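Review the following:
>
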Amino acid sequence: MRHVENGPDQVRHLHTLGPRGTNLEAASHEWLRRRGAAGTVELHSSIESALDVVPDDGQHALVACAVYPALHTLVFGNLHRLHMVDSFIMPTHNMVLATKDVDVPATVASHPAPAGLVPAGTEIQEVLSNSRAAIECAEGRVEGCITTIVAAQDHGLRVLRDFGAVPMVFTVHQVLAVDAGDESLLPAGAAR
């Protein structure tokens, strides 16, 4: 197996949770900006689906956040490919409860992470991202959503409650193949 440099300076392409308007998209662009690095940000339906398609050449990384559901499983199940090379704190977009046309939504779409913001007694429809929650609401599949202010505005939703920005830890995981000598990092049964 070829030798690939490990470290954030080699990363040029970030992969994270979409669609457009997620906090992870904003964090990915902010990470590139803070480093003064030219690069790309590609959005995926989940961090897990991104890992399935990201090349392990050291130039690609996944961006996640400390509250991403099952981040621990993703990291420890992929020690043979994922190397945490950075973390940083950045405020999220303002998190909001939004609706298309009702004052008290009976059903609310939410990513699992901010589901604690859903009003008590409201039925929750779990979705893969804050932006996806806004889409579900805008298309009438639910009456409300917990989403970012950016996604709410992008989809013409009315904000019922603004919870403000949340200081968040974001993590950067470089995707690298394990050198042949590092096979001890492979999970049991992993292909070599």
Q: What stands out?
A: Strands lie at 13-17, 40-44, 57-65, 82-91, 95-99, 107-110, 123-126, 144-148, 158-164, 167-176. The helical segments are 23-35, 47-53, 71-76, 130-138, 149-154. The first helix runs from residue 23 to 35. The two ends are 10 Å apart (CA to CA).
